Amino acid sequence: MSKKQCPWCVGDELYEKYHDLEWGVPVFDDKILFEFLILETFQAGLSWITILKKREHFRKAFDDFDVEKIAHYSEEKIQELLQNPGIIRNKLKVRSAVTNAQAFIKIQKEHGSFSNYIWSYVNHKAIQNTVKDYNKAPATTPLSEKISKDLKKRGFKFVGPTVIYAYMQAVGMVNDHETSCFRHQEVSFT
């Protein structure tokens, strides 16, 4: 008998693997936090599965999400990215990756790490929600609105409350696995 998963991932092997191994697991490593931030900003207006299918292309195109390298991308590199069919070639999103890398580094310098900054919003402990039906889970919360507002003030782009809530779910700041999902309990103890 197979384990019950959140229904949003069922039926696609890549989606199921992401759900089972990554989604909702608390992430404190700045490199991974940056990767998810960039991927979530590219996801704005698109489905997450679209981004997941292109994730390896993004890693290669964006120097394995090396924040220092991305912060110093030249116009030539930006134009190269805009020609790369393996990623989402949205001019504003590509340029925002550079801007966001620069803002990310400023936060690291100010707070010691981006992890210290972002996790301080939840007192460094994941919020354990009791989602019974993922379709009824919120797309934004007052907290995602607060974080979004602060990130925008710090110069980040494509970080609206919906993107930030999806980010919070992805990096485990909130556990939104359905209560009937086998990962709900597992993630709550990580």
From TrEMBL:
Signal sequence residues: none
Record EC number: 3.2.2.20
Keyword Hydrolase recorded: yes
Alphabetized InterPro entries for the sequence: Adenine_glyco (IPR005019), DNA-3mA_glycosylase (IPR052891), DNA_glycosylase (IPR011257), Tag (IPR004597)
The keyword Repeat appears for this protein: no
Key words, A-Z: Glycosidase, Hydrolase
GO molecular function: DNA-3-methyladenine glycosylase activity
EC supergroup of this enzyme: hydrolase
One Pfam family this sequence matches: Adenine_glyco
NCBIfam families: tag
Protein name (record): DNA-3-methyladenine glycosylase I
Organism encoding this protein: Mesonia ostreae
